[in-house]
Specification:
Distance between the termini of chain B: 35 Å
Number of helices of chain A: 10
CATH class of chain A: Mainly Alpha
Number of strands of chain A: 0
CATH superfamily of the largest domain in chain B: P-loop containing nucleotide triphosphate hydrolases
Number of strands of chain B: 14
Strand content of chain A: under 5%
CATH topology of the largest domain in chain B: Rossmann fold
CATH topology of chain A: MetI-like fold
Structural class of chain A: mainly alpha
Order of helices and strands of chain B: EEEHEEHEHHHHHEHEHEEHHHEEHEEH
Radius of gyration of chain A: 21 Å
Order of helices and strands of chain A: HHHHHHHHHH
Number of helices of chain B: 14
Radius of gyration of chain B: 21 Å
Shape of chain A: elongated
Mean pLDDT of chain B: 88
Mean pLDDT of chain A: 89
Low-confidence stretches of chain A: none
Oligomer: heterodimer
Number of domains of chain B: 2
């Protein structure tokens, strides 16, 4: 009870700072996710066209996953220095694997009979991609984006350690000052952000595949 | 109008011992219902998919209305003018019935109103009430209903030529018979040139004006169902169609294919529908104790007569 109270008190006392930290956190997450999506969806479509490319790229990217997010961050610092750019690059690298792997899988598993029917009816390759393949792949791509956004929201915390702001600020501060309540001021909003992004993306996902269940 | 001519069509796939198709010569007249029949691996589907250029021949030529489809013809344009039906998986699952049927009209940039009325017209044609089905997704329909939509979709751009690749393959026997009946009726109104692939002998005998039998990439026999049953070219054909089982033959041949056309009014006796089999005709003749039956169309209009002799001669 005491802890809840002190946490609340600290948050109220630092309201402006907290608001700024949350905004920074969201900006960091959004930019990294957008960059990952812009890179990985076209890349995933491209790899899905050939089994060889798919195997090579997907394995390489999955290899990246083995490196812990903290390590990526600190590996970049010697080259990039500290700051927002470094944090965004690290988070983008983190967000890429699930989006790429899911895009590749989504396009590769579309029933070939459906694509053939579309071609046989006289749709061009571009039309097949836009009107048939992309809508059918979208639910699985969204699953990848969901996974990526959860990971990125959580990992953006680490950005504070290289001076990029965000809610990690309170984690760092709480840890340094040995005060659990300050730590919670960072952790609780992060948990709420994860839940909110899950809710948003899963309802989006339901909306784009309503044809399956109705 | 749409005739198709295959000239010495050869198709080799990399890494295969023998060609998938080995010098096919075949002429299809306009308005005919042609069934390509044969065991799996005989090349029938490959042959079909060459007509809309999903496969390209290694050598030889295919002509539609005496024009080669390979010389200077735009493949996208060609495909939009040919109806294409495959097993029900070919419907786009994320599109409603209306959207599925509107694909080709939209590709051809028809005005919206024309497409809308065309969708309703086609749904009526395949016996799916438009108000009930227009907005449905494929997952909300039975296999038979999906296949009706598939047929409607192929007809949407009003093509003269329709390719059907085992369209009723994944459908239960009762629904299949139902779909075959509908297709026969539809074809009687529309008179399209239809190429239809199946491995189901009964289906071929029921639907075809002419059957082309393929085996290991070669055309073994091309003729009417009656010719194929009564004068099989070789043991392979004979065995494939079960030519020595007379009762079975009677069950597969439509009355209209052997009836004597009505010359004058004449007396009308007990009637039989033109799509019924000779087996039903024989049974009706015996039961009715008449010497002939009057063959009628779906509007009960007399078309011809059928007698014991007609039936006996047909199975020769």
């Amino acid at each position: 009870m005491d802890l809840a109270f002190t946490t609340w008190e600290y948050a109220i006392g630092h309201l402006d700072e907290l608001r700024q930290a949350t905004t920074d956190h969201l900006i960091l997450v959004t930019i990294s996710l957008v960059i990952s999506v812009v890179i990985c969806i076209p890349l995933g479509v491209w790899t899905s066209r050939s089994w060889r490319k798919s195997k090579a790229i997907i394995n390489a990217v999955n290899g990246l996953r083995v490196i812990p997010s903290l390590a990526i961050l600190f590996l970049l610092v010697p080259y990039m220095g500290v700051g927002l750019d470094t944090a965004i690059i690290a988070l983008t690298i983190l967000a890429m694997p699930p989006i790429l792997v899911n895009t590749d899988a989504a396009f590769r598993t579309i029933n070939p009979a459906i694509k053939e029917a579309a071609a046989g009816m006289g749709m061009t390759k571009k039309q097949i991609l836009r009107k048939i393949e992309f809508p059918l792949a979208l639910p699985i791509i969204l699953t990848g984006i969901r996974t990526a956004s959860t990971e990125v929201i959580a990992s953006a915390t680490l950005a504070a350690f290289i001076g990029s702001g965000g809610l990690g600020l309170y984690i760092q501060r709480g840890y340094a000052m040995y005060q659990l309540s300050i730590l919670f001021v960072g952790a609780i909003p992060i948990a709420l952000l994860v839940l909110a992004s899950e809710a948003l993306l899963s309802s989006l996902q339901r909306a784009v595949q309503s044809y399956k269940s109705v | 109008m749409s005739t198709i001519r295959f000239e010495k069509v050869v198709k080799e796939f990399a890494g295969m011992v023998r060609p998938a198709l080995n010098g096919i010569d075949l002429t299809v007249d306009s308005g005919q219902f042609i069934v390509l029949l044969g065991p799996s691996g005989c090349g029938k589907t490959t042959l079909l998919k060459m007509v809309n250029r999903l496969h390209e021949p290694t050598s030889g030529d295919i002509l539609i209305d005496d024009q080669s489809i390979y010389n200077g013809m735009d493949v996208i344009h060609l495909r939009r003018k040919i109806g294409y039906v495959i097993q029900q998986t070919g419907l786009f699952p994320h599109m409603t019935v209306e959207e599925n049927i509107s694909i080709v009209p939209n590709l051809m940039k028809w005005p919206e109103e024309k497409t809308k009325s065309r969708v309703d017209e086609l749904l009526d044609m395949v016996a799916l009430p438009p108000n009930e089905f227009r907005e449905r997704y494929p997952a909300q329909m039975s296999g038979g209903q999906q296949q009706r939509v598939g047929v409607a979709r192929a007809l949407a751009g009003d093509p003269d030529l329709i390719l059907m690749d085992e369209p009723f393959g994944a459908i239960d026997a009762i629904t299949r018979t139902d779909l075959q009946d509908s297709l026969l009726k539809l074809q009687r109104q529309l008179r399209k040139t239809i190429l239809f692939v199946t491995h189901d002998v009964d289906e071929a005998l029921r639907l075809a004006d002419k059957i082309a039998i393929l085996r290991e990439g070669q055309l073994v026999q091309y003729g009417t169902p009656l010719q194929i049953l009564t004068q099989p070219n070789d043991d392979f054909v004979s065995e494939l169609v079960g030519a020595d089982d007379i009762v079975r033959q009677l069950g597969q041949i439509r009355v209209e294919t052997i009836m004597e056309p009505l010359l004058d009014g004449g007396p009308i006796k007990q009637t039989i529908y033109q799509d019924e089999s000779l087996r039903v005709a024989l049974s009706d003749l015996v039961k009715s104790k008449q010497d002939f039956l009057t063959v009628v169309d779906s509007g009960k209009q007399p078309l011809g007569t059928i007698t014991y002799d007609n039936i006996r001669n047909s199975v020769g």
